[in-house]
Write a structure and sequence with these properties.
alpha+beta; nine-stranded mixed sheet; single chain; Alpha-Beta Plaits; binds zinc ion
Amino acid sequence: MNNTLINRDRLVRTFIDLAGISSPSFSEDRVFDYLSENLRQLGLSVTLQEYGQGKNLVAVLPATDPSFPPIMLSAHADTVGPCNDITIETDGVTIRSDGTTVLGGDDKTAIAEIIETLCVLIEEDLPHGRIEILVTSGEEVGLVGAKNLDMGLLSARHCLVLDAGGEVGTVVIGAPHQVSFEVDVRGKKAHAGIEPEKGINAIVVAAGIIQRFPVGRLDPRSVANYGWISGGGASNIVPDQITLRGEIRSHDAALLESHITRLREAAAAAGNDSGATVSVTITPEYSAFSISENDPLVAMVREACSQTGLPCTSVTGGGGSDANVLAAQGISCVNLACGMRMVHTNEEYVLVDDLVKAASLVTAIVSDKVRLLGNSLPPG
Ligand SMILES: [Zn+2]
């Protein structure tokens, strides 16, 4: 496999087309229209699965060689903001926005690379197995599309999620569990100037919780954050209500549970000391995913990197992706870097060379190395 099969200009055009389509979470329809048209032209069957807030797109390219195992390629259609009226600038080496919006390389690099891979397979008549394309919506706001995915539309047991940062060749082989929490503090109002002793200051109680449960890096495998606080009224009123929101992530389920318990204990202690009523609501966001370095899927990616001339680096990530949700459904997943840089900022950019490298890697996998999976099934 060499990079010359990749049509660099076509790949750049596809990426710029996609990046130019504004697609905030749950407003991805124009991306799905673009994909439906292009994927059908390439001979794929396309299904749009609607759920409450959004849609998932599943497209299937039937196998030309049934000895290849099926493989799923996944990406997401939504981007973070600001993403209205995206103006794209390129000098042929770098692609970026005009600085007033994100570029949307997260995750449109992936979608463009998938389309280019399909174009190469078809025009070069390369043998391949069943290829399932999954493009989700609402990924950036809590992996919502993946969580609402109709798994019956898919049959592959292995998936390349294309949604990681880092140099192309980076393979994310694990990501943490995540829960979000909301702490509600109910104190008691009083006139701050006349009878403050009759009040229970919810801000002070919240401070007591924060002091008892400090966030940041909790242990080598876990982190937590307070991200939002709201409440109170006027400076002359003892405030009776505060809401505090945050999250805890851990690669270890037992550690996660112990930190949740510590948060609950901190809240209860601060409530007891003050007489305030404190409640903690924990919302699981997603489970961890973890795949062994020795798993056939990781070995396959390593082989494909080597064939494509890319250094292969496996890493454990700190954030969730659709891989967390798909892995929880029993699909064996890795998350591959696809060339997005400085994502979630207006300085975001993409190197054209990275698009070509990532498309070459995916092409090497689906047209050849996927056979290394043989009949292996994900563990469990
Ligand atoms: Zn992403």
